[in-house]
UniProtKB/TrEMBL annotation:
It is found in: Mitochondrion. It comes from the Eukaryota. One of its GO terms (cellular component) is mitochondrion. The keyword NADP applies. This is Hydroxysteroid dehydrogenase like 1. Keywords: Mitochondrion, NADP. Pfam families: adh_short. InterPro entries: 17-beta-HSD3-like (IPR052149), NAD(P)-bd_dom_sf (IPR036291), SDR_fam (IPR002347). SUPFAM superfamilies: NAD(P)-binding Rossmann-fold domains (SSF51735). Its main location: mitochondrion. Belongs to the short-chain dehydrogenases/reductases (SDR) family. 17-beta-HSD 3 subfamily.
Amino acid sequence: MAAVDSFHLLYREISRSCGGYLETLAVVGALYTASRAVILLRDCCVLVRVHFLPRMIPGRKLRQTYGDWAVVYGASEPVAQAYAEELAQHGLSIIFVTYGRCNIADFVANLSQSHGVETILVHADLGWDKAASKVVVEALRGKDVGFLVNCVDEACTSPRELVEISEQRLMEVTANNVVGATLLTRLVLPGMLERGRGAVVNISSAPCCMPTPGRVMLSAATGYLDQFSRALHLEYSARGIFAQSLLPFQVASSSQRPASSTEGWLAPTPQVYVRHAISTLGVSNRTTGYWPHTLLVGTQHLFHTNTCFMDYL
């Protein structure tokens, strides 16, 4: 009994001497909880505005908004092909620009037949061959190009340390994802600016915001495309050009894993991903493009202080 009385006496003494501090800590805790709640509420509102409201509104006529033709670079990538197919469903004709030894002639022919649109296939190693730009310029001549889609090379997603990657491969990744995408944008932009409308969509990857070991080249290449998109939007949005950076997490077709084992809610097929992503066009210039991936970003934002995640949904 004496021990119990001593404990209560000690507790009263501590409460009396620390009462002011406890009240301060309670206020601090309440403010922190309120700030987290405000952030959560804001992110939920943005999630609805970016990913749900546009899909509830009747479909926009992309041809009238942006133009009759689209250019797709990195067309051998599944996500790029899915984006091209979605644009073709909206009636846009497509110019496919491929590099290396990619052969997508069958896909291009099937797309033209299935959707009744014109398609042009151009092989141009823009990152290596100075004369390649002339081939692209000739393909663009006289066409109302309102779309440019640049897609990161998924071959650089395989987990490998930097010292394990050959010098030739490093040059290829840089040439295709940095030089090629930048040069093609430079070739397409003058026509868009002349008409006062257009969209540049750069599809990269969320790892640019969270670099990890074994993903050095992926983080670097996607980071460049992300910053390139943001700078383009700041520079040309006032002149009618909408530049968008798409930063998806896992897509089922990714070369990192077999599609059959990853397809699902958090790893959509390219077709499902693109249907969601294209609805954010003109709404958000930097987004995951897919609302479950945005939930992952919101989780990062809620519990971590990674500032790279804080300005896109």
